[in-house]
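User: Need the bound-state model for calcium ion:
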Amino acid sequence: MTKNTIFVVEDEVIVARDIQSRLQKMDYEVVGTAARGEDAVERVLDLRPDLVMMDINLRGEMDGIDAATNIRAEYDVPIIFCTAYSNKETLARAKITVPYGYVLKPFDNRELEITIEIALYEHQINVELEIARERLIATVSNIDDGVVTADRQGKVLLANAAAIRILGIAEESLLGSDLDSTFTLGAFTEGDEVVTLEVPDPSSEIVDQAVTRQYLTSSDAARVPIEIGVSWFKLRQEQLQVVTFRDITQRLSQEEQLVRSAFYDSLTKLPNRQLFFDRVTSRMISSDAGGDQMQGKDAFTVVLFGIDRLSVIKQGLGIEASDTVIVEVGQIISAALNPQDTISHFGGGTFAVVLYEAGEVGLGVVIANDIQAEIERSLILAGESSVSVVVSAGIVQYSAQYTSVDELIRDGETALQKAKQEAAGSFVVFNSVMYEEAKKFVYVRSALQEAILEDELVCCYQPIVDLESLEIKSFEALVRWNHKELGEVPPSEFIPMAEQSGLILPLGDQLLEQVCRQLAAFQDKGLKGFNFAVNISAQQFNADLPVRLDKLISQTALAPSDITLEITERIAMAAVESNFQLMEAFRERGHKISVDDFGTGYSSLAYLKRFPLDTLKIDQAFVRELALDSDDFVITKAIIDLGHSLGLKIIAEGIETEDQLLILRQLGCNLGQGYHIQKACTVDEILAASASNASLGKALLPVK
Ligand code: C2E
Ligand code: CA
Ligand code: CA
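Assistant: Bound-state model below.
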């Protein structure tokens, strides 16, 4: 441990020596001595000892008390006065300098040592207290909360900087004022109790006041929202109260912001789905409580409006324009509603509306139609002066069968979807048949997803024959799905579903690979002389397809001409440059392209000249009605002749009778396919026929 250092001030040289040697014996370090007051001040401030022994009577201008006062003004050091005699007046002066002890000369060692130790200890404690006090003051004056301490009678004793700021009252006028008159409080929301800071009745028990929200009227008459609480404590027999309060203006606006973003759509400022559900749910509960059947005045209608072709607007005019459309549609719908009705923007231009007065669905339809008409009339797209905004509507009537808003909205959404499919700007009222359909759709779609993952879809192959020789020239791959619960699901049911949900891409990939591998397997077994035709959906017909085909062709060692792509007339004719380029890409590689369902689209044959095609497939509808004197005979004849003049081969599909076959032959149709010749066969059936040199129905396998 380092020794405590002491500075000795004594004008009698011999006494100074004596004190010095005594102190050293007590194990203190004497860092210096001085005989005159002025020297003492200078050297103590320079040396900064732990303690000063100060003789009161010094020769010269400055006595010990003056010297001590000067030292302590700048340096907080314990000072012990030593004096041989003292009068009352001197001692009184000495007291003011906060002495840490007196020793009277002559003093004995023990007395001296105790006085020094006490002085050092006391000084140490004082320093710590001072630090603690400073920290406390710094803390209280730096917090954002206002803190006001008052006595039992409510007289303000202390106020921190935040209190002064929030109240807007100067510290001088605050100290000593009455709490009750300083705080002008008011209820935060109507009906709330107003906090009072009156002096509590002396007889009654003192209680704390929990933190409550109030409005404070500050000195400049501003109404400040605050949180305020009062707690009482006892200090040295005295009851004191501390009022803490904080300005919550900012917090309130944050809270409001939070509520807004949680319950309101930021674009339209309308209630969002969450708030809508809450409102309609509570409405449903309250009408349930009535116990009545949901009819008459308790029934209501829900309408879902959806902006048609919003994605087209977004692509064509930009996101800002489409946002504006959404906002404006929301405004028109809102304006058409009664005050008690509820509207919400679910996002993406879909609005939900509850028409509470529409107890009959017919009334709901009328209101919805009016709104649709109003939107179409008043919203004309900027820059596209002839194009107006159109909304479709899905309408559902609330009835006792509904137990939740979710169910209502689900059905409304189903109806809306139906409406959008039917035509832009139309409406559909939900009914139970639609519900069953929707349920099945959801089920089948997830089953299909699973089937794709499990690779459960298998192709069958329908022969396409030369109509003269009935020899097989090609097989059309037709997908088959046998589901464990649903049974055989026809492709006409699940292919459109796969197209709608995007599942067609993985499915198409899978089937293309299956078909290529199957044809390669046939060729390995010596079954040759025909190619495979694969149906390609619109979404599959993109730039990835040639790449994918290249890979498969090289993996399976097929020739490009082994694969014919069947694309519908609609895809082929879509006047899209990229489609044309794609067709060129396939033709360059050596694949064949066949136009399926020909005659059902809008295209003229002459138009086909532009495209690199190989075959036309006349749609079943024409073949079905084919009789020598029918219109279809004339049309079919025209298609075949024109097709031939363009250098295309013609396939007739859906040949079901011998008559049809004969007529088609007579018309010079090259190829044919249909139940009359052979239905789609499994791979095993084809292999069995080949092994036994048998035909497939009327279709003949090429001779090996
Ligand atoms: P599609 O391409 O027009 O196929 C011809 C459909 O007519 C097949 O129905 C076939 O079984 C049927 N058919 C053949 N001959 C006759 C007949 O004489 N009379 C009648 N009434 N029908 C006949 P399927 O297999 O049910 O396929 C229906 C549709 O599903 C196909 O029409 C095609 O658009 C689609 N599809 C089938 N397989 C696939 C596939 O692998 N990929 C894609 N993208 N679509 C496929
Ligand atoms: Ca086809
Ligand atoms: Ca077809």
